């Protein structure tokens, strides 16, 4: 099992939820408003007058066999609108309660 953290422009929210549904990733935790700035490209998401957009984040647990196709689908979303920003990070989960 993998933990998957997805950070993204709020404009992507509906599409990301639909993608998680498509891959039967039912459980997740969502932070609807987070601030951030990409390391290489994209606009900062700071919620200020100069940089008014905000980002969101979702943490979900994914079965190992779903990770690669899910990451590919998220990459497609990012490629469609690269300036909005979308990043996904996965790491191993040892145990859950």
List keywords for this structure.
Alpha-Beta Plaits, alpha+beta, four-stranded antiparallel sheet, 2 helices
- Provide the number of structural domains: 1
Tell me about the largest β-sheet: 4 strands, antiparallel
Tally the helices: what do you get?
A: 2
Find the structural class using helix and strand composition.
alpha+beta
Percent of residues in β-strands? 25-35%
**Globular, elongated, flat, extended or rod-shaped: what is the shape?**
globular
Polypeptide structure, described:
By secondary structure, the chain is an alpha+beta fold. It has one domain: Alpha-Beta Plaits (2-Layer Sandwich). The protein has two helices and four strands, in the order βαββαβ. It has helices at residues 13-22, 64-80; strands spanning 2-9, 28-34, 55-62, 86-92. The protein has a four-stranded antiparallel β-sheet with strand order 2-3-1-4, covered by helices on one side. Helix 1 (13-22) packs antiparallel against helix 2. The longest helix has 17 residues, at 64-80. The radius of gyration is 14 Å and the shape is globular.
């Amino acid at each position: 099992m993998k933990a998957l953290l997805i950070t993204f422009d709020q404009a992507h929210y509906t599409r990301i939820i639909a993608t998680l549904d498509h891959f039967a990733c039912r459980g997740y935790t969502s932070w609807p408003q987070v601030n951030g700035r990409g390391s290489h490209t994209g606009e900062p998401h700071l919620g200020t007058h100069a940089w008014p957009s905000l980002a969101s984040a979702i943490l979900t647990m994914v079965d190992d066999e779903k990770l690669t196709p899910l990451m590919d689908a998220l990459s497609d979303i990012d490629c469609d609108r690269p300036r909005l920003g979308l990043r996904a990070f996965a790491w191993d989960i040892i145990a859950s309660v």
